[in-house]
Amino acid sequence: MTLPVEGQSIQIHSYKHDGLIHRVWQETTVLKGTRNIVIGGNDRTIVTESDGRTWLTREPAICYFHAEHWFNIICMLRDDGVYYYCNLSSPFVYEDKAVKYIDYDLDIKVYPDMSYTLLDEDEYEEHRKLMGYPPVIDRILQRNVDKLIRWIKQRRGPFAPDFIDVWHSRYQFQKRYRLKE
Fold first, then answer.
1. Active-site position among 23, 44, 155, 156
2. Catalytic site residues (predicted)?
3. Catalytic residue at 23?
4. Cβ neighbours of 45 (radius 10 Å)
5. Ordered domains of the chain (ranges, CATH)
């Protein structure tokens, strides 16, 4: 199995349950790459939507993917603090220089004060019916919503106080190093 290498530029591919591409982030720098975890950083990267529209991310972000958890976490560094966007998704796979996962619509937005909101329940219901999500997906996703909320409350994983400082510093170093090459 190929693993992403620290410093390597990769893409992030989000799919829907029906196998169609949902969104692609063009460039993310690998900060840590193992069989179970990929941590990446990006800033002002081009994002392409399934309909071909493109947009540019507005702020630096640290991305956390895990091969055993049914979620991924995007930590966005803004002037007024760190915001977290948690996607309920399949565990990631890494192939063809891309982190790939299935987006299951539900999201949790976490604010700098660690308050949070569950988003897109209506979108989840619509897609669950439209794409025929099996009942086991409902159970897995509900358990992972609960797990994410525990992580937020316990300041665990990407929500830990030093997570952003450590990984953003590493991202800044990688950017400086790549510019010198």
1. 23
2. 23
3. yes
4. 19
5. 8-179 (2.40.380.10)
